Amino acid sequence: MQATESMRFLANSSLFSELTMETLAAVAAQASVQQYQAGDMIVWQGQPSESVYVIARGIANVVRLSPTKQASTLAYLMPGQSFGEVGILENQPRSASIAALTDIQVLAFERADFLRILHRYSGVAIGLARILGAYLVDANRRHLHGATESRLLLLFDLGVAGAVDGLGQRLAATLGRNRAQPTVYTAYPDPSRLATVLGVGTIRGI
Asked: What pLDDT was estimated at residue 50?
């Protein structure tokens, strides 16, 4: 990945969107590019929090193990979203595992580098505050609504017969089983926009 491409991905992220292009160049130089295949674990629950990640391409899901070792999917992460910030700030082990739902590319910042960036650039602190606020709102919503909350899955037609229906059924079944929530799904009506929506170069590259 070229430096300009890394800068573009960071500029589209919630965490770094407040930064100027000049500052983004300095920040991007401190990130390492990592690739994972669908099904790979990016971080494991309980591991030390050593890095912050920004998703450049692909989709990940957040998985948490209960004390009884039952896995629950908490959320799905899309391009531009980040993870690992809370563990770095609190100096605590990972509270959940992050798995690659598709082939995925991330920009990773080691703990010491991220903390230096956070102290040096107020725009990153603003972005982080926005993210933490969203986490708090989501946590409150989960607490208030519990298992009565519904889920809508929006799926993308890849032009492969049966692929969308099969994936939709699996995702809906997983959410319904792990979260005991009413879950429905639908296919994305405009597959020509899929590459743009997911931040990938071509549909064939997914």
From this structure: 92
